[in-house]
Amino acid sequence: MSISVAAPDGVKVYTVAGGKNLPNWAAKKQQKSLKKDDDYQRRVELLQEFAFPSVCQKIKVTPDEQYLFATGLHAPRVRVYDVSQLSLKFERHFDAEIVDFQVLSQDYSKAVFLGFDRTLDFHARFGTYHKTRIPRAGRALAYTSPRAELYVGGSAPELWRLSLEEGRFMAPLPCQSPAVNALGVSPAHGLLAAAGEEGLLESRWARPRAGSPSSTCAPRALTVKDHHYDAPIQSLRWLPAPPGVARRQGPQIVSSDRHVIRVWDAASGAGTANIEPREAGDINDVCELEERATPTVYDDYRFVTRTELDALGLAHLAGTSLLKPYMHGFFLDNRLYSRAKAIAEPFAYEAYRAKRAPKVNAALAARLESADGDAKADRRAKPAADGDDNVSEPALLQDSRFKALFEDEAFAVDERSEDYKALHPSAPSGARARKLVEEHFDVVEDDEDEEIGRVAGDKAAAARPAARAKPSSAAPRMYEARSETAAAAFRSGRSLEDEKQRPLAERVAAAGGKAGVQPRRRPVGNREVTFELKQGGKKRRAG
Fold first, then answer.
1. Rounded alpha-carbon distances, angstroms, from residue 176 to 88, 161, 212, 256
2. How far apart are CA 483 and CA 478, in angstroms?
3. Cα atoms in the 13 Å half-sphere on the side-chain side of 377
4. Which of 5, 77, 335, 404 is the right S-S partner for 408, CB 3.0 to 4.6 Å?
5. Most confident of 161-170, 222-231, 420-429
């Protein structure tokens, strides 16, 4: 068994559900195929079935911190987990989507759920206990235990009060806002706060005749915190300091959207660097023993920033299903990234090879790589014989015994030095020698082989010219000079192509300006004429 742990910023984050870490937008077919994966088979679940088929909307912990409520869809359901047993306590389904819920007791025995169909569903240990409806669509719930009253806010300028002690609706509390979006009760003094539309916040005592002082938000924000997701903030809470521990920093705020939960300083907006999980018995020991580091956040996806996205030419895909926003960038499929990278940087592989090439004996390394590539191509083209595993020997460049040959300057060989030429008189002078041979000579083809290659219907004979298209380096090759001039230029080590690119004055100066040279007749009837310029402006022509 194995537990995946990722620490991109130094804070360890454990995957408690186990299995391959896939994003929620991945195809369901791909997620189902992971059942045959070895990583999935060796998984360990720290909390049984701590996942929803589609979406998990809200999570709350009971006051005794022994049970965990989680609501989600599809279909609308609630799951209660026993933290002490690390297991699923029960699961219940609903007829409508759950908008909000409140835990009414210290444990899981009493809870109320606000449905999308304006239904208040009260649950006990055994299941549904009572259902009632509210006049308008509800948006938030709040509960005060001293008075045993439930407050419901919704699309109306009032708060509906339900007395659980008397079992009836009380007089509603009027509000100045046209609608109420969120409710909260202070655990210190029981002050009820209602956040309404148009940026209005109302705070009041939970009594009908008590005043309702209100305050509007300032036109200028004190602190701005960007989640970098372009998604609405779903939850915003103050983070209380642990009991008995003095806070070294200022007040902390916990904000969340559908992507991430952030803890940051209320004054400066700086993110809190150290977040430690609460002690959980033997769970930490299991995590430390079985943890396995994962280099990426998601498999089969690559994280790219906006700058990298512009460089790849994929900025127009922002907002589509091909790019998934994450923190300060996006998640992109690896296959699409590879294609875009090849188009944006077509010479990236050549630059990589040049950078990867050794600094010492680079020409020798290039010849060895070329020979190794030819050998691999021949092995792929030639079918393996019976009993032949066709296993290649390790390349010389990867052999640790010859590693110093391409790293130590003491083993460097200068093929242009006089000592090397004296020891290797027949060795080619490098790229220039090969260039001169290709310029001045043509490969001589065997007439008998050409005749055999033209025979129709003979597959064996037709295969011979194809094999000669790439002659073996060990076989002798015959060359024929293209002309007498080419042969003379090759003997003197000159390139006619380079001379054609030179100006006429430079060519005359290189010839030495000799007069009286007779014209020469070329094999095809052309004639060569030389001339020289005199101070008097007279020209001497031959021909």
1. 43, 17, 9, 28
2. 16
3. 9
4. 404
5. 161-170
Identify whether the C-beta of residue 86 lies closer than 8 Å to the C-beta of residue 105. Answer: no
- Residue 160: in which H helix or E strand, if any? strand 158-163
Please count the other Cβ atoms lying within 10 Å of the Cβ belonging to residue 92.
16
pLDDT of 11 reads 64
Closest-CA residue to 43 (of 28, 26, 62, 22): 22
**Confidence at residue 494, expressed as pLDDT on a 0 to 100 scale:** 74
413 sits in which H/E element: none
Separation between Cα atoms, residue 505 and residue 41, nearest integer Å: 81
Helix (H) or strand (E) holding 63: none
Q: In whole angstroms, what separates CA 283 from the centre of its chain?
A: 30
d(CA 76, CA 70): 11
- Calculate the CA 47 to chain-centre distance: 29
pLDDT band at 103 (very low <50, low <70, confident <90, very high): very high
Residue 543 is predicted with a pLDDT of 44
Distance CA 137, CA 192 (A): 20
Long-range contact set of residues 157-161: C-beta below 8 Å, sequence gap at least 24: 159/183, 159/194, 160/134, 160/135
Which residue, 218, 194, 216, 214, is CA-closest to 206? Answer: 194
Collect all residues with Cβ–Cβ distance below 8 Å to 155 and sequence separation of at least 6. Answer: 136, 137, 139, 179
User: How far is C-alpha 80 from the geometric centre of its chain's CA atoms?
Assistant: 35
- Cα angle value 526/527/529 (rounded, 5°): 150
At residue 81, what is the residue type? Y
**CA atoms in the 13 A half-sphere facing the CB of 15:** 26
**DSSP 8-state assignment for residue 346:** T
- Tell me how far CA of residue 178 lies from CA of 107, 347, 385, in angstroms: 35, 62, 85
Q: What are phi and psi of 350, to 5 degrees?
A: -65, -40
Give me the residues paired with residue 183 across strands: 194
Three-point CA angle 168, 173, 179, nearest 5°: 115
If you ran DSSP here, which 8-state letter would residue 35 be given?
Answer: G
CA torsion sign, 48 to 50 to 53 to 57?
positive
